Amino acid sequence: MKVALITGITGQDGAYLAELLLEKGYEVHGLKRRSSLFNTDRIDHLYQDPHETNVRFKLHYGDLSDSTNLIRIIQEVQPDEIYNLGAMSHVKVSFDTPEYTANADGIGTLRLLEAIRILGLTKKTRIYQASTSELYGLVQQVPQSETTPFYPRSPYAVAKMYAYWITVNYREAYGMYACNGILFNHESPLRGETFVTRKITRGVARISLGLQQKIFLGNIDAKRDWGHAQDYVEAMWRILQQDTPEDFVIATGVTTTVREFVQRAFAEVGIEVAFTGEGVNEKGHVVRCGNPTAGLEVGQVVLEIDPRYFRPTEVELLIGDPTKAKTKLGWEPKHDLNSLVKDMMAADVALFQRDEYLLKGGHKVYNYHE
Ligand code: NDP
Ligand code: GDR
């Protein structure tokens, strides 16, 4: 039985990857941060009672900022594969917490690589590094491939750039099986609530149920190459199953504006929106509402721009070239943007129907949103 260790197992990708590896018969270990509230919502369905026998899913308290903790866990687990998904992954927040981001996302990767080396596991343990399309940053050329130069535009991207190169360096210096997956944006119903797609699908679901009036966004002209997280974790696994370690771009090859994502999300609940105005005065208006439960009027404003969500330096355009992954890994995504939006909207409408039900029953519901 193969043994895998996943950092960031409580995150979006960690949850899908753990599910995939368990299905493939792996014993799966995960690094979990201590928090004052439970933080295992996304993986609770995978939980196995540690008192049972033949448990194949185990969590360990730890943090990427803690070398001795990582060394101890890796020594205990003796993993065949490590997937380093743990990170402070929010680009905008990285401008507020640059030092922490560098520590967790940059040096955290070094700590894992060194732990493998110190423990003499360089020939046994393969490591996947969660690299990102944010490395491309300021547009040099499109579509972006494995050979496109990097120009990071945030403390997050700069930290990830260190992680990218230290992974390459350990592969070349010590012959380790260490690879980067340069993944473009991937989303799902498990996406963190403050990333733009999930913020939109949550907001639109709530508007359609009469629970919220409007959503506030930043730069709606940014273009992203959005895929489905379920497809992308399959690529991570494939990257570690090759004869030789290499880096791969994982993307759909299709780019879409945030603005279009908004329109598609509203369309899922029978609401047509159009945009008028310019820059920070831009507003999204209801053009047609074929959704009787929403109680919206034509002309009503459902979206406004809030400069608070602008970034000091922005990444305007991402579009990836997944040719190498398709050819060498045989990787093909099963979802397109249409099925992604449908999946996310269906999940968020179902989620907030519970709130609607509670409200009708006289209960209080709260919605923290940023
Ligand atoms: P999430 O933000 O959903 O999950 C991040 C995970 O990292 C969480 O489990 C989080 O724990 C954990 N974490 C954060 N800080 C630390 C730390 N100091 N030590 C240990 N664990 C930590 O991210 P995604 O699942 O979306 O992304 C997974 C990885 O892929 C990240 O590295 C991200 O940067 C990268 N990536 C993501 C892309 C995307 O579009 N989703 C695209 C390209 C790269 P907790 O739950 O306790 O907060
Ligand atoms: P990104 O994702 O920065 O690409 O990083 P995010 O969804 O945060 O932003 C995408 C684009 O939308 C614009 N935007 C907003 N973004 C947020 N979060 N909130 C808003 O209100 C808003 N309005 C407009 C942003 O300016 C941006 O242009 C994600 C993360 O998962 C990273 O960890 C990962 O490495 C990259 O994708 C690939």
Automatic annotation (TrEMBL):
Question: Which family, according to UniProt?
Answer: Belongs to the NAD(P)-dependent epimerase/dehydratase family. GDP-mannose 4,6-dehydratase subfamily.
The record's annotation in HAMAP family points to:
GDP_Man_dehydratase
Question: Which classification does the entry list for the species?
Answer: Bacteria, Pseudomonadati, Bacteroidota, Cytophagia, Cytophagales
Can you say what this protein is called?
GDP-mannose 4,6-dehydratase
**Gene field:** gmd
Query: Which enzyme type, at the first EC level?
Result: lyase
Please give the function described in this protein's UniProt entry.
Catalyzes the conversion of GDP-D-mannose to GDP-4-dehydro-6-deoxy-D-mannose.
List residues of the NAD(P)-binding domain.
5-344
A GO biological process this protein is involved in? 'de novo' GDP-L-fucose biosynthetic process
Q: What is its EC number?
A: 4.2.1.47
Q: What reaction is this protein's catalytic activity?
A: GDP-alpha-D-mannose = GDP-4-dehydro-alpha-D-rhamnose + H2O
